[in-house]
Structure formats: C-alpha cells, structure tokens
Amino acid sequence: MTNHKPQVLVLGGNFAGLASAQKIREYARDAVDITVIDRNPYLLFIPNIPAEIFDNRDPASSLRMDTAEAWREAQVNFVQGTVCAIDPDTRTVEFVPGERAGAPVESLCYDYLVVAFGCRLAYDKIPGFTQHGQAASDTYYGNKLRRVLHEGQYKGGPIAIGSARFHQGTAVKDLVPMADAACEGPPVEMMMAMATWLKNHGLGGPDKITVFTPGRMIAEDAGEQVVNSLLGIASSMGFHYRNNVGDIAEVSNEGLRFAQGDALEAELKILLPDWVPHAFMKDLPIVDEEGFVVTDMLMRNPKYPEILACGDAAAVTVPKLGAIGHQESEIVGRQIACDVGRIGHDIAAEPLKPLVYCIGDMGDHQAFYIRSNSWYGGDTQVLKMGRVPYLLKMQYKEMFFRTRGKIPPWGLDAAQFLAERLFAA
Ligand SMILES: Cc1cc2nc3c(=O)[nH]c(=O)nc-3n(C[C@H](O)[C@H](O)[C@H](O)COP(=O)(O)OP(=O)(O)OC[C@H]3O[C@@H](n4cnc5c(N)ncnc54)[C@H](O)[C@@H]3O)c2cc1C
Questions:
Q1: How far apart are the first and last CA of the chain?
Q2: Which atom of ligand 1 is nearest to the CA of 186?
Q3: Contact by Cβ (8 Å): 243, 212
Q4: d(CA 15, CA 320)
Q5: Cβ–Cβ < 8 Å for 213, 245
Q6: Using a 6 Å cutoff on CB, does residue 83 contact ligand 1?
Q7: Mean pLDDT across the stretch 126-151?
Q8: Is residue 393 in contact with ligand 1, taking CB distance under 6 Å?
C-alpha cells in the first residue's frame, strides 16, 4: 500500500529537533509521517553543564537523556546518522548512518524539512585553545575542566571567562538585532559560580576573575537595565570586566591576546567560541552569508517555504538560546499542521516574538533569573536572584527528563510566577 502522508524530516534531535517533532505530532496528529536524524541517540542538557562541573558531577552521566522513548511517544522514525548534504531542489537529504563505521552515504526525501541541528562551536578557530583553553559546552570539555578544578591542577591564579566574536549573517537584520557574541548567559553564569567555588575551596573570590566580551556590553540581549544591575552587583563584589575587546586572537599559557591589541593574564581561560553553521550549509540557497538558515518569523525559508528552521541553526535565533528554540518549535508545529489542514491559519499565523529567558547557577544553591524582550523592542526586563531561581533551574531539568521534553505550559507559567511574584528577591 502506498503511503500518501506528507513526509516531515527533522534534522537534529536535541532541544529544537525534539521539541519540533513533538509539536508537529501534537498539532498535525496523524496527518504526517515524521523522521528525525541525529548522530546521537540521546539529548544533552547543555545548560546545566556548568553547574555539574562546579559540583564535581560527571555531566555525561547526569545530563544525557536517552531519546528512544520520546521518539516512540511522538511516533517518530528515528535514524542515527550524520547529515552531510541537503538538496532543496530535489528535496533530498544525504546522511551517513552512524551505528557502525563503514556505512555509505544514504538519502531520504521529504515534503517538509525542519533544520534543527544547531551549530558547530568553533573552538578550532581559536589559536592555542587545544593546549591552553577550557570550556563547558559539552561533556568532554566539561569533564576536562572539572578535573582541572577538582583534582588540584588549578593553582589559584587569575581566571579569564568570555566569548569569541560571533559572525552573524545580515539576511535577517531587519527582523532581529545584530549581536557581537552568540550567547553570553554562560560566561556570566560561570563567573558567578566560579567565584563561589573559589571561596568554598579557600582559593580567593571574585577579584581573581575577569569576564570579557567582544561587544559593547556583555549579555546585551538581556536588556540594558538588567545588564547594568548585574554589572553593578558584579563590580561591587570585586569582579573585573572588560568590554569591546574584539575577537580572541590567541590563547597561551600566560593568558589571552585580543584582536583589538589588549592582553589579559590568566592561568585558567574558560571560553565560548564563535557559533558557526555546519560546513556543508555554506552556499546553499536557503542560508545567509554565514550559513544560518534564513527564515521569516514563522520559521519558513522565503524561497523554499517547505523548509523550516528551528533553534541555533536558524538565522533569527539570536542570541543562541535553547529557550528561543523552544518558542520557535511551537511555530514550526503549527505551520506544518496548518498546511495539512489540522489547525486554522489564524492560530498558525502567530509569529515569533523572541524572549530571552535564562537561569544561571551562581553556586551555593543560588541563581540569577532573566526574562527580557527589550533588545527586540519589548518592555519586559526582569532580573531576580536567589534560591528560588536555583530550585527552578534544577527542577526544570528534572521535569524535562521526566516528561521527555514535553514540559507542560503551566510548568513555565508556574516558574515565572514563583521567580517573579511569590519569592521575588
Ligand atoms: C555552556 C552553555 C550554557 C547554556 N545555557 C543556556 C541556558 O541557560 N538557557 C538557554 O536557553 N540556552 C542555553 N545555552 C544555549 C543552548 O544550549 C542552545 O541554544 C541549544 O542547545 C540549541 O538547541 P538546538 O537543538 O538548536 O541545537 P543543539 O543543542 O546544538 O543540538 C543539535 C543537535 O543536532 C545534532 N547534529 C548536529 N550536527 C548534526 C549532523 N550533521 N547530523 C546529524 N545530527 C547532527 C547534534 O547531535 C544535536 O543533537 C547554553 C549553551 C552553552 C554552551
């Protein structure tokens, strides 16, 4: 029997890919077949890696969620493989099956394509990083830094934390602002948590730490008022701050050299690199000059409307935040469901209104909470600090794993209520 259902192919199965597949299934119900390709059969809960490092837990065992059950629940055909090419004209994707080495290139056709396979974190573009840099964005680097901190390799010298310059494409500059760094919540989180770690290990405090940014203002996307409050608190605690340093030119044993000519002495250099699209995306007719997928605020590519993007791979996702990818997945689900006649145009026509939503660990069971849309022209700028945001951060991950990513909307509403009203710091 021939299957006439539209074939939806989702590339990537972490936050954006999983949420997109779930939302498509929720709204389109049985009107489509869904296939997800990811090189990993698990989701990595990246935002909690820094907290695991400082608490000396292996993020590979605490932050990986096996996705098999989530795919079964969403009636998704999961393919473990590495995508290596997209042909928008023939509606074909090429991939290499990943369970065993030696598989040849295979291909799949689609009626709808959802590009949700994130970016490369380009540590390989930072000279000297391999020998002298540290990071917290995956389990390998997380465990490397964990060993440096907890096994006595760090000797108590100065610490530099910050980002390389982000190279954002210009194709969607009328839709979202231009950013100098891809995602600066993590550096702010790590500077706070590191100061607590130093204090608790008798190694000093904030005055050992310099946080830097390639841009005018760190975490600018959180809103000027929020950042000024954060910087005020940080400077009164003794942190050092450098802005407008440009790109990271080199990491050495002694410290960092920046593109603007500045240098910074540091024993420990904890870095966020440039977030770069996958190499094979460059020059496709669906991407900007950097390789990010161009979409409108309904997450559709203007030239190929059957191609949608979600999460870090999308050009309009700035900053690169899982929380924004989550908002986009809702739109992706509704767009496809509308095309197949399962929901009305009025419901599907609600465009992305990005909201920066970030909870950062500060150590000692404290966290900061930011909810802001002022960078995009909105009027919300909320900053809270204390134990409740920390509990929310940890509980969010527990609830995510328990529900296999299907956080009920009331979960987010309750988090906002608890952080902003009930236990306002
Ligand atoms: C240290 C750190 C802390 C962070 N903290 C926060 C936070 O507090 N809040 C927040 O909202 N965001 C945070 N972020 C950002 C957040 O992690 C990302 O925005 C989010 O992970 C993006 O989700 P994604 O699904 O688009 O991409 P990813 O999470 O990068 O997932 C991409 C998926 O695609 C797969 N993939 C990639 N290439 C291929 C290929 N060629 N073939 C097949 N599969 C492929 C990968 O295996 C992966 O599963 C943080 C990031 C870092 C580094």
A1: 62
A2: 3
A3: yes
A4: 12
A5: yes
A6: yes
A7: 98
A8: no
Closest Cα partner for 184 from 107, 241, 124?
Answer: 241
Q: Where are the alpha helices (DSSP H) in 40-156?
A: 49-54, 59-62, 68-73, 129-132, 139-150
Peptide bond into 177 cis (omega under 30): no
Q: Which helix (H) or strand (E) holds 328?
A: helix 322-339
Cα separation of 233 and 212, whole Å?
16
- Give the per-residue SS3 of 290-302: CCCECCCCCCECC
For 190-208, the pLDDT digits (tens) are 999 999 999 999 999 999 9
DSSP class of 88: T
Collapsing DSSP to helix, strand or coil, 87 comes out as strand
Cα Rg, the chain, nearest whole Å:
21
Q: Which residue has tokens 């960078």?
A: 375
Give the 3-state secondary structure of residue 193.
helix
Write the Ramachandran bin of 404: left for phi over 0, alpha for psi from -120 to 50, otherwise beta.
Answer: left
Shortest-distance Cα residue to atom 16 of ligand 1: 322
> Which residue puts its alpha carbon closest to atom 30 of ligand 1?
118
Residue recorded with tokens 């250099």:
269
Write the pLDDT tens digit of every residue in 12-51: 999 999 999 999 999 999 999 999 999 999 999 999 999 9
Which residue CA neighbors atom 20 of ligand 1 most closely?
A: 322
**Domains of the chain, first to last:** 7-119+277-348 (3.50.50.60), 120-275 (3.50.50.60), 355-425 (no CATH)
Neighbouring-strand partners of residue 358 = 370
Pocket flag, ligand 1, residue 255 (CB < 6 Å): no
Counting from 1 in the atom list of ligand 1, the atom nearest the Cα of 311 is 26
Report the alpha-carbon distance of residue 276 to residue 271 in Å, rounded.
15
- Token code pair at residue 41: 């059969």
